[in-house]
Amino acid sequence: SILIDKARIPLVLAGAVEASHDDPGRMAQIVRGLTPEVHFESDEAQRNVHLTEAGLAHVEQILNVPSLHDREHLHRLTQVNLALHARVLLTADVDYIVRADQIEIIDELTGRIVEDRHWPDGLQAAVEAKESVHRKEDGAILGFITLQHFLEQYGQVSGMTATACPAAEELDELYGLNVVVIPPHRPCGRVDQADVVFTHRTAKLEALIQCIHENHRSGRPVLAGTAAVAESEELGNRLLSVGLSCEVLNARNDAAEAEVIEEAGAPGAITISTNMAGRGTDIRLGGRDESRRVEVISRGGLCVIGTNRHESRRIDDQIRGRAGRQGDSGSSRFYISLEDPLIQRHGIDSLIPERYRRPLRTEPLDHPAVQREIDRAQRIVEGQSFEIRRTLSRYSQF
User: pTM of the predicted model, to two decimals?
Assistant: First the structure.
């Protein structure tokens, strides 16, 4: 979690500064009127966004300035770029939630709210203007250090995790740490089923509901792991519309986490969760009533369903690992569509031959080429993330 997942961003010592006199609300209003691919463009991985020449001229006309690149207008160009970043690269109910008239940032890896965190250098104000919430003090970075160099201050570094092997090369290169596999004291009783891939999201959603319904009817508890708050709530609402009662756990109702997890292993229970129910969460079969444990085991244990592939196989493995713990029975399966954010953001669908992508169909794509390309693309994304961490470490050495 710390050495790998969080190492793309340095540890930051931040402070509050007096809010600037610029008007982020006006900039947000201007940016709302810009047209994608005409006034601005973003890179294929959605890590950067910039104005086009037409977009720059359009904004200059609205602001009535000759050139935003003139020294006296550079602060306005910065404000426009911040508003554009807030509109395009930061999404409500994915990167943050709006609660009690405030912006609360979500940790993409854990699905939890990060307390006392705000974006620096005017970006927080841009997001607040986008969502029309109360403006807080601006943040400024006072100092930072990479996690790699911070951990060098310790005489010894060690850890234990069930997902270290895929990151063994990185742990060795960046930290000088070897990975040793310790066999479990009980064999894993989980059955990991092959992914089910669909051409479009609607077909995937229908298959998800059918799978959840079948397992619920058989008396098995179901945990559906989603990628974002919005997705968890959408799936929960669809289940309710077909008469299936479920519990939804995400950053918006994090206060109920302990209560929801306590009953997530009860017979027939349906729990929809973001990554909050991933790493480290122990779902006891039978729920609160231990006498029902044998009943759940006899019906196949916990059924884990992933609604998306993540950017790292380790994150996928963590959600799988909620089932089959301590030798219990259980199963896991991922449902994927070629319209999923990971597939679209990184152009994975373009790697799959056209004859497997069209036309849209309700049945799964049953061909090894489809799964092979998805696995390969996931490895490419993992390699990109590794390179980001490696580059950050190298730059910070100078």
Answer: 0.87
Which residues of the chain register pLDDT less than 70?
Answer: 17-22, 44-46, 139, 347-349, 351, 356-358, 397-398
Beta strands 329-337 and 196-198, pairing class? parallel
Residue 289, classed as helix, strand or coil, is: coil
| Whole-number pLDDT of residue 46 | 64
The helix/strand/coil state of 311 is coil
* Amino acid of residue 340: D
Chain segment 316-351, per-residue pLDDT in tens: 888 999 999 888 999 999 999 988 887 777 766 676
Distance in angstroms (rounded) separating the CA atoms of residues 223 and 285: 12
Q: Are 190 and 243 in contact (CB under 8 A)?
A: no
Q: What does the alpha-carbon distance between residue 92 and residue 345 come to, in Å, rounded to a whole number?
A: 17
Residues 6+ apart with CB under 8 A from 309: 195, 316, 334, 336, 340, 342, 374, 378
CA gap 95, 243 in Å, rounded: 30
**Segments in the chain forming alpha helices (H):** 24-32, 53-63, 74-88, 123-131, 147-151, 168-175, 201-217, 229-241, 257-263, 293-298, 313-320, 341-345, 354-357, 368-395
